[in-house]
Amino acid sequence: MPHTMNAVVKTAPAKGAEWQQKPVPAVKPDWVLVKVKATSICGTDVHIYEWNKWADGRIGAAHLPQILGHEVAGEVVEVGPHCKRIRVGDYISAETHIYDPGDLQAMLGQLHIGERMKIVGVDHDGCFAEYFAVPESVCWVNDRGIPPELATVQEPMGNAATPCWARTATWPARRWPSSATGRPRCSRPGWPGPAG
Predict the structure, then answer these.
(1) Which of 61, 95, 134, 195 could be disulfide-bonded to 188 (CB atoms 3.0-4.6 Å)?
(2) Predicted confidence band at 26 (pLDDT cuts at 50, 70, 90)?
(3) Rounded to the nearest 10 degrees, how much is the dihedral formed by the CA atoms of 11, 16, 21, 22?
(4) Is the model's pTM score more than 0.85?
């Protein structure tokens, strides 16, 4: 395992980012280290690269430098001693929201809005690097038949599709044109027409 890696780093509160050598992240007891196979660029990454008003208010210069990126697919190369589900060699995608299991919202099943929730590539170093570390709890094992460039979009697809299947949704997702089954209609990446 190398001690350093290449990474895309936001270094200053201005437009741009730098290609730098950074230390390979250390693995915490319940985290995994992932060798990145592919990433995709999110609108959030563009905001941070451009360093617009949102980025300045949400991140702030005091939290720089930071590695960008959060949409990823890769292979697990190391696991912490408390990991139970993810194994070395697993091909994973990762959820962006690092939640605190003791947070009230997390206990209610709303992992993405907890008071102490952190976002990969926003509050924590991201995946635009050769390696990145993330909690085991936010990793999803991929079928090896899914190409890495498609596996990277599982995070944004989950953000977009979850309301379509949420039976308790009361916000506009329930008012979208629905199919004969009464379920909201959503599109699928790579296929025309509704999902579900």
Answers:
(1) 195
(2) very high
(3) 40
(4) no
